[in-house]
């Protein structure tokens, strides 16, 4: 299972003059028809970043259109049929354990969700924030393309 982090989508949507834009676009084109995932926290983060340049109706339209536009599945932390209080208690305990590995809150939410959903491969431009903190493969979009002979 392949998870794509926020920065890949932000570069695609906002930073077309970024030196990584073409590689980023090539990666998104390569995985467009593949089964892929991102977390609800990624979608909220991306929407928040883009919100400064969007109208209220555009923000809402972007948020709801995101999964279809990128043909991507949105995943959430596992609730395991817990009550709301038990879920929040377990979630915050798990997040705190991840933060102890020297990770910020937003990244810890994303990593927790990835772990809960048995993600095997993570792709993002800031893999140094995640490497060594979970048992999965970590790639930049460029590394992923190279590993799949698409460079």
What does this structure look like?
The protein has one domain (2-147): Rossmann fold (3-Layer(aba) Sandwich), CATH 3.40.50.1010. Helix content is 54%, strand content 10%. It has helices spanning 6-14, 21-31, 40-50, 56-70, 84-99, 105-116, 141-147, and strands at 2-4, 37-39, 73-75, 121-123, 137-139. It has a three-stranded parallel sheet. The chain has a two-stranded parallel sheet with strand order 2-3. Helix 1 packs parallel to helix 3 and helix 2 (21-31) crosses helix 7 (141-147). The longest helix has 16 residues, at 84-99. It starts with a strand and ends with a helix. The model has no long low-confidence stretch (mean pLDDT 93).
Question: Beta fraction of the residues?
Answer: 5-15%
Spell the H/E element sequence. EHHEHHEHHEEH
The CATH homologous superfamily corresponds to 5'-nuclease
Overall mean pLDDT stands at: 93
Estimate the global geometry from the Cα principal axes: globular
